Amino acid sequence: MAGPRIAGIVAVGLAPWQQRRATEMMQARLGSPLTIKEIARACEVTPSHFARAFRGTFGRAPYRYLTDLRIAEAKRQMMDTDLSLTDIALMCGFTDQSHFTRVFRRLVGKSPGLWRQAARE
Questions:
Q1: What value does the mean pLDDT take over residues 59-85?
Q2: From CA 15, how far away is CA 103, in angstroms rounded?
Q3: Which residue has the higher pLDDT, 120 or 29?
C-alpha cells in the first residue's frame, strides 16, 4: 500500500483495519510473547512489509510500540495496585524484574521502584 509522495519517496503505511488488528493484538498479548510474524500474518502481509508499514503509520518500530504499551501498563499497575514489581514485570511481558528495570530505566529515566514512590507522593 502506497501513501503520499514526499520529495520522491512513497510513504508506506497500514490500512485502518490492519492498524486496528495490530494494536488490538498487541494490547491483548501484553503479557505473552508476540512476534512480528504473527501480527503480519493477521494483517495479511509479509513480516518485512508489516514492519516497514507499521513504522510508516506509527512512527516507530512494532517492538518499540509494544514496549511502550508494556511500560504504560506497568505504570498503571504500579499506581493502581500493590502488586510487587516482579509480578508487574511478568504480567506486562518482561522476562523478569531485572529486564523490566533495565527497560523502564532506559525509557523513563528512573527505576520502577523510584518512579512508583514519586508517583504516589
A1: 96
A2: 30
A3: 29
Binning pLDDT at 50, 70 and 90, where does residue 8 land?
Answer: very low
* Distance of alpha carbon 19 from alpha carbon 25, whole angstroms: 10
Q: What is the 3-state secondary structure (H, E, C) of the chain?
A: CEEEEECCEEEECCCHHHHHHHHHHHHHCCCCCCCHHHHHHHCCCCHHHHHHHHHHHHCCCHHHHHHHHHHHHHHHHHHHCCCCHHHHHHHCCCCCHHHHHHHHHHHHCCCHHHHHHHHHC
CA-wise closest residue to 57 among 15, 117, 101:
15
Which pTM was predicted? Answer: 0.86
- CB within 8 A of 68, min separation 6: which ones? 60, 107
Tell me how far apart the alpha carbons of residues 18 and 55 are, in angstroms, rounded to a whole number: 13
